[in-house]
Design a protein that fits this description.
Layout lengths: L2 H16 L33 E3 L2 E3 L12
Antiparallel strand pairs: 1-2
Length: about 70
């Protein structure tokens, strides 16, 4: 392996180690309705939250400041 490829390999390893993302356990949520992604057509939309999950457990509420993958 040449020095460039070696350096790239080392950088990839550092990037993976520094990743902020963690794999969550799969949580089964029973959803009997289909969903439609409308993010390309709408800037806002009404929706129903089916479940709240924190640290891999379903919870009844979330605290201010907790991170979420939506806005």
């Amino acid at each position: 392996m040449n020095s460039f490829e070696q350096a790239m390999s080392e950088q990839r390893a550092r990037a993976r180690a520094a990743s902020q993302f963690q794999m969550a356990e799969t949580i089964e949520v029973s959803v009997e309705q289909s969903t439609t992604f409308s993010g390309y057509e709408e800037l806002q939309s009404n929706a129903t939250v089916l479940a709240l999950v924190a640290d891999g457990e379903e919870v009844q509420s979330l605290k201010s400041g907790q991170q979420a993958p939506w806005y």
